[in-house]
């Protein structure tokens, strides 16, 4: 059923929670793939022979592909319309390609039996396929909230996405440990990936495809004419868009978007540090392993434990996503985001001080609060400043402020950990926590229409 049968005013109808869930369900599958990657990519690359100081370089694949792919997909989505709609074709294409990456990445060593290739480089190639396809799907989901919801429902829309993201990430991050508890081996020969990880990626591929297809089947987008009517524009009067318009849009980004970008820089620099180096940090600081131990049973046990930890922060993000809506209404969006980032910063720093691994869920509590807010509040603040017809391209450009700090971190993180911290990554996580605290302070200086 179409969300409206006839456009009678310039005001978008409010959608029900069920409709918002339907249009966001694909994000559950995307984040399950993302959760599998975040909690297992460093481990997989280490299994294939990568040293700790190289990990951040390999992780550059994700932000670089996002930097290129998301603005292009956003621009294309803003200016095309077909039988499936505006955003949905990209959901489907991205899901199919990502599923292929999920299947092949942990099997890179086996693939080399069919043709001569360096297993580490082949793994990076499959990681690139995953990252590019995730970005193809992810950007349209962000833009779809702006397309479908009135601005006053923006916080609700992005919070629902955060809840589904949390559920998908909890499942994805926890799958290897769950399978291990069911008797699937978490140990493999040197140069290979354990079966519990491989099977987890297969499950992730299946759920990703099912979730994307559900959103495609249950959601019908507004037509370009309907969107133009909502924004009070003449749909037929607008000039035909060209590829070069992306550069003009970048030059004219709203002032608040730039300020939010600075907050995003600190936030995502910290998150990238956590995703890349937590396995090494926990293995050395809490399990007492040497930095060059990347194949032992103890290292793989640490890898399973980090997957569970990542599952915990994503689990905690789910109830916090419910809290964001009334909290933002009471104290304001930026104050809510500042509080969440401060909690995340303290959570990262506490990883150093909490030596008992059974208590590290406390660290994940603060990180979960920050993660919930990072996935929702910046976008809820952003859509107040974005023109309706530019929703896709500006969401894509906003991604620059997510990927650039990751690229910088990817270039400098490994050498810093190796040379300055002598391959003990826990100190880099403490530094990441300090940066998140700085972001919490800066967001308070952004002027918004709410409190």
Structure description:
The protein has 451 residues and is mainly α. 73% of the residues lie in helices and 0% in strands. The protein has helices at residues 17-47, 52-58, 61-78, 88-104, 108-111, 119-148, 154-181, 195-218, 224-230, 245-251, 255-285, 297-331, 333-353, 361-382, 391-398, 400-420, 426-442. α1 packs antiparallel against α8 (195-218), α1 (17-47) packs antiparallel against α12 and α13 (333-353) packs antiparallel against α17 (426-442). Residues 4-9 and 235-239 have low confidence and may be disordered.
Brief overview:
The protein is mainly α and 451 residues long. Helix content is 73%, strand content 0%. The model is unreliable at 4-9 and 235-239 (pLDDT under 50).
